[in-house]
Design brief:
Jelly Rolls, extended, Herpes Virus-1, 12 helices, 6-stranded antiparallel β-sheet, alpha+beta, 27% helix, 7-stranded antiparallel β-sheet, Immunoglobulin-like, single chain
Length: 741
Amino acid sequence: MLINMSDSGKLTEFGYVMDLLAKGKVTIKNIERELICPACKELFTHPLILPCQHSICHKCVKELLLLTLDDSFNDVASESSCQSSPRLRVQSPSMDKIDRINRAGMINYSGWKRSSLTPRTTTFPCPGCEHDIDLGERGINGLFRNFTLETIVERYRQAARAATAIMCDLCKPPPQESTKSCMDCSASYCNECFKIYHPWGTVKAQHEYVGPTTNFRPKILMCPEHEMERVNMYCELCRRPVCHLCKLGGNHSNHRVTTISSAYKTLKEKLSKDIDYLIGKEGQVRSQISELNLLMKETECNGERAKEEAASHFNKLFEVLEEKKSSIIKAIDVSKKLRLDKFQTQMEEYQGLLENNGLVGYAQEVLKETDQSCFVQTAKQLHLRIQKATESLKTFRPAAQTSFEDYVVDASKQEELLGELAFFSNGVDIPEINEEQSKIYNKALISWHHPEKKNKADSYILEYRKISREEEMLTWSETEVYGTSKVISDLESNSSYAFRVRGYKGSVCSPCSREVILHTPPAPVFSFLFDEKCGYNNEHLLLNLKRDRVDSRAGFSLLLAAERVQVGCYTSLDYIIGDTGITKGKHFWALRVEPYSYMVKVGVASNDKLQEWLHNPRDISSPRYEQDSGHDSGSEDTCFDSAQPFTLVTIGMKKFFVPKSPTSSSEPENRVLPMPTCIGIFLDYDKGKVGFYDADHMKCLYERQVDCSGTMYPAFALMGSGGIQLEETITAKYLEYQNDM
């Protein structure tokens, strides 16, 4: 990094690296691996230093932010409408404004207010370490440019295209080859032009010049937080240069800092010492490289030998299977031939019973005999045969069985054993996916453990693939994990995925775990919070600070005034809605109802219907007259065929009550289901359809038409004690750099 804090304008770290290059201690062509961006896999272009100390191209940072921008806008809640009415979902901003992500850590367009619903569009995974990186309030502007790396890349480019000269920028056509470049003018000159534009005795004669280059950079490093201030300190906690304003009242006010010169001296001494140590160990490194070459050759030979042994084992299995196959097929053929022979004999006997054929034809000829003694001699035996044939007609029985049930091969155990066929595990236990802790919502969270808890692995490979309905075998996707859980993104909606994991301990691999199949929601997850301003009754309902949980304390005021209650009465339903409306598309959200809840209603309702409910409260009214109350008042029977602007289902006393519909049973006991642990709601606005799901298994419990002519909102109602918790979206944990410092 170029840091100039003195009047002499000397190079610091860059100068030291360039000295090494000039002295021939580093061959520029041998360091290409260090000059490749981990995102685009090409040479760095304007590299930026991330908080995790990895470098990445400027354009790659913008592309990674844009990849997360679409998902972020889907979760944005608008606050543009008045606070007394439900808010509408706003459309995504036009693409011509996306460049604003360079200037802010939050998308902050006109009319938008930053709130808990505003997406953090400056978070993305680092391609180098795969940890989530939060760029903070200033976004890309808060990152330093890695000028040292940028200059080394430029030198590498020049070494790669040594035959291509850099031409003078000031020459008249045709331009001459440049001999030097001015860092102050950001231009390249030939000898003649340099003398003309940098005459002796002028200020320009004092400009800094280097060899021909196309990489120009500022001589003074400015603070990204305070753009008019140059950096003059180094924060030891954040490991980055800062200015005096950052220390006085900025983000580094409580951090330990040192002067740039002191940091330069310390880091240069450490770097020099480390480089000298590595250079001093060159013989050891070369010896280890030779050893690695031998190990690679040995691995190649051992790998081929292992392949041959594995192929030999499978060939033996094939031989056993072929032998078994031949013997079984032969036995089936013998049985088939024997049965067909019996059927053929029986068929010939029956054909003889036909007129002029066989036995009947012979008997007809015997009847023509006129000699009595000869007739009697022959007819006796013939009569017995005729009687036997007559009896067989009365009790027809096939001579053999047509079924081959006794010859069905049961290979289920063998298939299970073959499915478990794997490498011999040398002390690495097979991991097992924890189905209770694994779940799919907006993303997939997969957790696993070792049941034996003896020989745990050092790292894991999590594999997953989509299960195609056409039974097409899709390839497995793999991701390496160093913990026992992983968040998987980019899964398709309304799909089933198979997951499995295997462990690694050094070079030893365990067999794969048993596959676990999870189902994604039928639509993208819809993010919202409870609305605390529209219709919220804080006397009966208690909303937490995060606005993702509501508890009912209805009836408390009634108990305080119980001595005045002399007749039976009903408490009213207390409504609360989501703070974001839906005007198009498919959406899914999930929630959990506390098991102790007396009566809870969940579903969707239009803006107009909500206004009717919220502005016409009934404190002492029977729920029997509420069409959506869940009571069997009879009013539902007349209207369930027509789509209404709302649909609510009743949940309470650990039960899920299926409303009456043409497809549901009229018997009450058949419309009562056990309450799912997690309840999902799927709204297809365009088709006017709402469904209620067991979200743990993505099984639809009830579905019906709903009138979506207006803006629809998630709607909830509580009576008596109860609680509703919105399902928390799955997010990857951010990297905490303090542990590494």
